[in-house]
TrEMBL record:
Domain 4Fe-4S ferredoxin-type: 32-62, 64-94
Keyword Cytoplasm: no
Catalytic activity: glycyl-[protein] + reduced [flavodoxin] + S-adenosyl-L-methionine = glycin-2-yl radical-[protein] + semiquinone [flavodoxin] + 5'-deoxyadenosine + L-methionine + H(+)
Domain of life: Bacteria
Organism: Holdemania filiformis
Sequence similarity: Belongs to the organic radical-activating enzymes family.
Domain Radical SAM core: 14-273
UniProt entry tagged with the keyword S-adenosyl-L-methionine: yes
UniProt cofactor(s): [4Fe-4S] cluster
GO molecular function, one term: metal ion binding
Protein name stated in the entry: YjjW family glycine radical enzyme activase
Amino acid sequence: MKALINRIIPFSNVDGPGNRCAIFFQGCPLHCAYCHNPETWRICDHCGRCVAGCPAGALTLRAGKVVWEESRCVGCDQCIHVCPHHASCKVSELTPEALLDRVAETFPFIQGITVSGGECMLYADFLTEFFRLVKAAGKTCLIDSNGILDFRQYPELLQLCDGVMLDMKAIDDDFHRQLTGASNRQVLDNLTLLLEAGKLEEVRTVLLPEFSEQNQKTVRGVNERLQGKIRYKLLRYRPFGVCEEGLRFCGRTITPLEEAQRLAQAESDRGFHNCVVI
Ligand code: SF4
Ligand code: SF4
């Protein structure tokens, strides 16, 4: 059993509570307009277009496959900029045991690990095995997910994980489709399931500068489901790193702080004091 790992951040304090090792998996079924990492969407098809532009000679085409030499890579991301497929050649294909070997040296300094993406639930069976190993080492395991795959299908994984940080991109299904390319029905089912199972660590919504009405609708709808019991992060949209198509949809400005604070205050006035503006 193997998974494609895009990136490992050994120490992060923005991927869940405490100091955590964050692991980003390659591949995502959604294509959100505001995605900051569109290179995690698809799996490299080894077309070879990025090889010639690598200034460090870290990429070679061998037997029809692009091979990335991590030790030569200078991290310029030129390969990502030229890739026409929203893919990355800078991925490692690892077994659960090999991934544990990669991250184990962080364990004396962290509270736990967080798996993210792309969409890490694409690798649910891998995660079940990996979480078993991490839990045996005494660390907590969090899942950061867009909720597009059915958590009900993976009861063992749900039991092993300590919590899920769930994206709720829009409560209006039509708008969710415009924003991500998919319906939000499964996300809402997962929200209910995780809430009832006591596995919802937090919910996050990105507030868009040009969609005030949708922002308000989503925040109100989500909080009515959460009843203020779970931390709800309102993330201000930032255009940095968003692709041209995404910028056309979401705009080129940062969501004003006042708008996010006004939404949080309105929720607080309704008795829901769980909103945090980021
Ligand atoms: S980031 Fe990509 S283009 Fe830049 S050195 Fe590394 S492999 Fe080469
Ligand atoms: S990363 Fe993109 S450009 Fe490079 S070989 Fe893979 S699919 Fe082609």
